[in-house]
Amino acid sequence: MTLFNKYVVLALTLISTSMLVQASNQAHYSPTTKQRSSRGFTLTEDRLTAIIIDLFDEALLDGNNIENKLYDNNKDANDTDYVALEFEICTLPSATTEGSPKKNSSFKKSVYSAQKNLSLLIAKLYIRRWEGITSLNFLQHPSLKRSTLPSLLQTLEVSKCNITILNVTVDTFSGYAIKALDLHKNLIRSVVNQGGRNPLNDLDRLNLNCNQIISLGEVFAQASSSLKVLNLQNNCLTSLPACCLSGLGDLEYLNLSNNLLNDAGLCVGSFAGIHADASKDLTIDMSNNLLEVFPPLQEIRDYLTELNLHGNALQSVSRKGYQLPKLRKLGLISYMRSSDLDELLVKKLVHRVNTEICTITVAPGFNDNYETA
Questions:
Q1: Which end of the chain has less neighbouring CB within 10 Å, N or C?
Q2: 3-state class (DSSP) for residue 194
Q3: What is the rounded CA–CA span in Å between residue 210 and residue 159?
Q4: pLDDT of 29 over the 60 cut
Q5: CA dihedral over 131, 255, 309, 333, signed as positive or negative
Q6: What string of DSSP letters covers 316-348?
Q7: Sign of CA dihedral 231, 237, 241, 244
Q8: Cα separation of 79 and 72, whole Å?
Q9: Which of 29-43, 77-91, 214-228 has the largest mean confidence?
Q10: pLDDT of residue 337
Q11: What are the phi and psi torsion angles at 336 (to 5°)?
Q12: Dist. CA 142–CA 138, nearest whole Å
């Protein structure tokens, strides 16, 4: 065999081996029903926590907000796995100022002085499109727990990942200062508390938008929740069982829009326990559901200030009569009903609201006393 022929055989062997390895990798990382896509390389929790720690250390040294993007040559840049760490510097309140410390909007080089007092830092962590993340267990990784980041972290976003069940325990946020949790565009079907104190009760804001939640269970029925904002829009909820939200005594905004809520799934106790402070406003968005009857809101009639029912097929107000004395905005726009039905519905509702303060938004062509779309 000539030297040239030997080189040809060697080249063909290498190409064949490379193709076999590539095929094996593709078979190993082929997508399942619980995965969004295959990226060709493994993104483990160990790797994620190592990146977060590196970003944290680099930010403290350089005085900048840091982001880390892992690019796959076969993916668009906007579809890359993404980790970012942002900071805000708190300035201590003056002797005459009450309330929480003020926050500066930019990180600047003042982080140098803040290093001497890390309690002046507020951290925000964003993790997106990381298909290896199926839970929040990475928060308890030893590397993260040994750092000072948990005590600074107040905002956490884990979006467009593969979390299918939000399984929380008393240890989920142990050691963390998280007040805002954003889990939008995951694959969450249910939210479960494994027992003990529910860690979600310590949050101020929870965003579960664009998931696949079909039932709330009892996770929001436990007492002493500090949640002020709960976003459940774009899910698959069909019902709100009695007292399923009874632990949300501080709630100020509830978004249930773009679900599958229907009349049979609502009862007199569906909203029991929500919002117990008459001095604060309460807004509920139930737009774009399957309601034909005005929802039962008796338990919150003294707190409700804004109600959005746009996009439903409301035809009746046959529920037991009750007043909504604080209601300031009521949205009734539907693109599937005639103005005759709208007008009849409004006439029935006018007797339940204070028309001096309440604006009712209905279909075009209505009486000038009401705001029109």
A1: N
A2: coil
A3: 10
A4: no
A5: negative
A6: B--SPP--BTT--EEE---SSS-HHHHHHHHHH
A7: negative
A8: 9
A9: 214-228
A10: 54
A11: -115, 0
A12: 9
The CA distances from residue 167 to 150, 190, 290, in Å, are 20, 8, 29
Pick from 124, 247, 232, 141: which is nearest to 177 by CA? Answer: 124
> For residue 227, what are the contacts with CB-CB under 8 A and spacing of at least 6?
200, 201, 203, 204, 205, 206, 220, 248, 250, 251
CA pair distance 338, 320, nearest whole angstrom: 25
Which residue in this structure is represented by tokens 């942002």?
86
**In angstroms, what is the C-alpha Rg of the chain?**
26
The dihedrals phi and psi of 372, each to the nearest 5 degrees, come to -115, 160
pLDDT tens, position by position, 257-284: 999 999 999 998 999 988 767 778 999 9
The CA-based dihedral angle spanning residues 235, 271, 158, 187, taken in that order and rounded to the nearest 10 degrees: -30
State how far the Cα of 139 lies from the Cα of 127, in Å rounded to an integer: 12
For the cut 50, the answer to whether the pLDDT of residue 288 exceeds it is yes
> Are 128 and 82 contacting, i.e. CB atoms less than 8 angstroms apart?
yes
Q: What is the DSSP letter of 139?
A: G
- Find the helix or strand (DSSP H, E) in which 60 lies: helix 45-62
The secondary structure of residue 90, as a DSSP letter, is: E
Determine the average pLDDT of the residues in 328-341.
72
- Sequence length of the chain is 373
Closest CA to 67 of 76, 78, 58: 58
- Given phi > 0 = left and psi -120 to 50 = alpha, else beta, which region is 113? alpha
- For residues 12-46, one letter each, b for 16 or more C-beta atoms within 10 angstroms of the residue's C-beta and e for the rest, the string is eeeeeeeeeeeeeeeeeeeeeeeebebbeeebebe
Q: Kindly report the pTM of this predicted structure.
A: 0.79
Backbone angles phi, psi at 126, to 5 degrees: -120, 125
- Beta strand 282-285 with 304-308 is parallel
**The CATH classification of domain 216-373, taken from the options 3.80.10.10, 1.20.1250.20, 3.10.129.10, 2.40.170.20:** 3.80.10.10
Give the confidence band of 13 by pLDDT, cuts at 50, 70, 90.
very low
